[in-house]
User: Fold this.
Amino acid sequence: MVKLLLEEEKMELNNLIIKSVTKEELNKYLNFIEQGKKKMKHPEWMGDLTKEDYEYLLDHGALLYRWTTDDETVAVGTLFIPTKNDLNKFLCNHLNPAEVIEFGPQMVNNDYVGKGIQRIIIKHLETKALSLGYMHALVTVHPNNHYSLNNFLKLGYEEVTRVTLKRGERIVLIKSWIGTL
Assistant:
């Protein structure tokens, strides 16, 4: 049974609940990322955003989510508004900035890897982006992160370019919903 209530920012899929993250709950979100990075073979794939960076993003329209069971965080994900500089760097400056949302860092608890959780995250973020009026979703993925790259490609994202960011090389992927709704 899937129950999607965007107004309440809550989704249940079997035992998963999606919760919006506020500034007051940011430490839980960041703690999950830091603990997860310790178990990752390539923690640099997650970037190095600080608490201050996330607070800034929240203050400027970002949406952070935690997918949980009753007692643990299963995954986290982010939606934020890319800057015009980002759109230029990602060769997406032909797009109307008001119609573009960027999917930020996503992480799945190691105990749940391989169970389709990232695709659930992506689909929820897409649903939210569409409900807010965005027509394009942008994401950057490390070229060696085959799992994430394949998940996005299977869901219709297309490679735009490759860029080097402070956390290393990234493939820029975009999905447009114009003409598909």
Q: What stands out?
A: The longest strand covers residues 168-176. The chain has a mean pLDDT of 85.
